[in-house]
């Protein structure tokens, strides 16, 4: 059976992106950097989570952020207040970061700083529940966010992102008492599509769950560092 033109084009785009992603990851590995790809729908709380994460971990882990947004640097400016390197990428009409865009961000990072000084780069992807999960950027792990305000059914309706995630953060849990929402059902739906994923409920506002998230990040970075040392 012949593929449609659109299907063949999509496969070619993903193949080309995968090649670029592997190139990015080779740079990360060469520099001894762990990369996390942070993904969610718009408004799930990625930047708020990053603000708390950078504030808590920047004294323990040397880190930088690659900040993806369609048109502005509003989120990048929020993170720059914490005095860590933030590389802003505007995607225009594109609904996700791709590997080539992140390669441009890595070029800026290597031009402005010494990349081997960093242990962690966090990529904040464009808010979208579908496309970011399909286009790898060279990350070592994908972190997906799902806010309690989005409902329990999203992992089943948009399974790709949740299937690909290594860690799933259920965000804005401080709002749960005011919503008709079941956190256990959210987790159960997530595990239908990804039984092995780490699930951590958090609130960037109250701080609930954040120590578990910080521990996950530190443990993942340390494990990768040990792996690189063995090699």
TrEMBL record:
SUPFAM superfamilies: P-loop containing nucleoside triphosphate hydrolases
Ranges of residues in domain CobW/HypB/UreG nucleotide-binding: 38-200
CDD domains associated with the record: HypB
Keywords associated with the record: GTP-binding, Hydrolase, Metal-binding, Nickel, Nucleotide-binding, Zinc
InterPro entries: CobW/HypB/UreG_nucleotide-bd, Hyd_mat_HypB, P-loop_NTPase
Keyword GTP-binding (UniProt): yes
A Pfam family: cobW
Family note: Belongs to the SIMIBI class G3E GTPase family. HypB/HupM subfamily.
Name by which UniProt lists this protein: Hydrogenase nickel incorporation protein HypB
């Amino acid at each position: 059976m012949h593929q449609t033109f659109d299907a063949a084009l999509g496969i070619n785009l993903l193949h080309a992106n995968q090649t670029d992603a592997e190139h990015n990851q080779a740079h990360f590995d060469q520099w001894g950097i762990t990369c996390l790809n942070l993904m969610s729908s718009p408004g799930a709380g990625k930047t708020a989570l990053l603000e708390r994460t950078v504030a808590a971990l920047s004294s323990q882990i040397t880190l930088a952020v690659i900040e993806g947004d369609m048109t502005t640097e509003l989120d990048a400016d929020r993170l720059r207040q914490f005095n860590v390197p933030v590389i802003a990428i505007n995607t225009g009409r594109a609904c996700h970061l791709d590997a080539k865009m992140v390669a441009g961000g890595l070029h800026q990072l290597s031009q402005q700083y010494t990349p081997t000084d960093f242990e962690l780069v966090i990529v904040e992807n464009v808010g979208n529940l579908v496309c970011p999960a399909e286009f790898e950027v060279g990350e070592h792990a994908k972190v997906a966010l799902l806010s309690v305000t989005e409902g329990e059914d999203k992992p089943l309706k948009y399974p790709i992102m949740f299937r690909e995630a290594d860690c799933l953060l259920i965000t804005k849990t401080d709002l749960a008492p005011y919503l008709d929402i079941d956190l256990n059902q959210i987790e159960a739906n997530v595990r239908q599509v990804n039984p092995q994923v780490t699930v951590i409920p958090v609130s960037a506002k109250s701080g609930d769950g954040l120590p578990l998230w910080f521990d996950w990040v530190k443990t993942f970075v340390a494990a990768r560092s040990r792996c690189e040392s063995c090699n």
